[in-house]
Amino acid sequence: MTKEVIIKKIDDFLIDEFEVEEEEIAPEANLKDTLGLDSLDFVDLVVAVESNFGVKLVGEDFVNVTTLQDFYNLIEGKLH
After folding, report:
1. In the chain, which end has fewer C-beta atoms inside a 10 angstrom radius, N or C?
2. Is the pTM higher than 0.85?
3. What phi, psi does 58 have (nearest 5°)?
4. Positive or negative, the Cα torsion across 34, 39, 41, 42?
5. Between the CA of residue 37 and those of 2, 10, 49, 53, what are the distances in Å?
6. In this predicted model, what pLDDT tens digit does every residue of 18-47 receive, in sequence order?
7. Structural domains for the chain
8. Which of 2, 43, 48, 8 lies closest to 25 in space, CA to CA?
């Protein structure tokens, strides 16, 4: 799976499942401050990642994830 496909899938489920506005989605967007994701959203995000990409995420995976780019990199790293 290419990085572009990973980014497209993540962006699509942020828009569809989390009602994030498309214009707010940018690699430098902060997941909490810019996109408005809270702790319950992160639980849903883990479930969405597992169903869309077939990878398991745990709390420790998010320690260094602040921006959307960090999240893209996390998923790409889990897939390779």
Report:
1. C
2. yes
3. -125, 165
4. positive
5. 25, 14, 15, 20
6. 999 999 999 999 999 999 999 899 899 999
7. 3-79 (1.10.1200.10)
8. 8
